[in-house]
Amino acid sequence: MSDTIYYSKKEVLEVLKTINLLVVSLNSIAMASVDHSETDLAEEILKFIQDKDMLSQLADVREILSSPLSKEMFDDETGLLEHVMDKLDYWSHKK
Predict the structure, then answer these.
(1) What is the model's pTM?
(2) pLDDT of residue 83
């Protein structure tokens, strides 16, 4: 398992564009909700995510970043990504 991964400049720029779009926009939405009490934070975030197709863009980022890691396996035949992602605390609806 190599500790070094290489990406093309084009891939890095695509990832950075998506991350920047998300971070700057979420910050702007948050600031608007502070400055304008009539701004519904949840509604604006959902609208942004839908209008900019952020889930698709983030899935593309995930594909770019995970591609070099997808073939790395542990001794028990568990993939590196599967092993790491399995431990994440994913959101779930709490009743």
Answers:
(1) 0.82
(2) 82
